[in-house]
Amino acid sequence: MIDVTCAIIRNDENEVLVVQRGEKSDHPFKWEFPGGKTNSGESHEECIVREISEELGIGIVICSRLDEVEHDYGQKQIRLIPFVCDTLDEVPLLTEHISFRWVASTDLDEIDFCEADIIVAKQYAGSESRSGNNAENRSETSSVDDSGLRQIITNLSSMKEVEWFCDSALENNAIFRKLLEYSWSDDKKLNFRASWILTKVCDKFPDIIYPHLSQIVDSLPEVNNESVERSFLRILSLSDVSQLSEKHHGLLADYCFTELNSATSAIAVKAYSMEILYRLSVIYPQLANELAVSIRALMEEGSAGIVSRGNSVLKKITEIPLD
Q: What span, in angstroms and rounded, lies between the C-alpha atoms of 133 and 242?
């Protein structure tokens, strides 16, 4: 029996990532949840984080674990260990698969999965339905004490629970401040989940973040979790940065140019940095040329996602009126 891990990776729209196997694989052109074999001495959790980084080049945070699935493929027997994970990376870099799709959980039954993955997909769809019902009950009865709030965040499993947070944060400023506080926590699972929820709150109620934008800018160099960095940059990329002071404009521009020109920054970080720098270029047109040069250099060796985003920003740069 071979232990194999797989990841049910959710994006910020609560869609699930599925990948397609190649023609020369064991299951040609079938779709599956990404993952791979567990190495000797490696935990299942360590395995799935490593496999997703190697296969897709994206970062994940493990949120929960589903029941193991044992399946006999004839030539081999596997024990498939599924993990439900979150990510803010939208464009994976395929190294072993030929295609990918983001799929709503309600549409997973339409995917031509490998046999063991069919069982995992059904299990996940069922867990989503149950957690949605729990979220409705929670919104009526949950207290907002610190320990209770931390537990809700770390065990978050459905978009209905996120909606509860969005509405509660608007009604109760203490909850919103807790989300900010937890985003700087040393607990990586807590800070990722809190900052991710924060992005959804700001999507729904964009004005709520403006009194705290300067605090976020100040904290960026100290953030030690790439997932939190992506969350903060996403919030800033969708915000009216003209409300920041000139000092914070400078700090933000320096930070984003550093990330944009770095060889190690994640794709999502570069994409959000482009958008933030474009917004700053509208305020300071003298930044536009430097931004265009950086984007063109990045696009020369960038992925399809970076090239697409780069072309979009370059087009907008040409529309900036120059004095």
A: 41
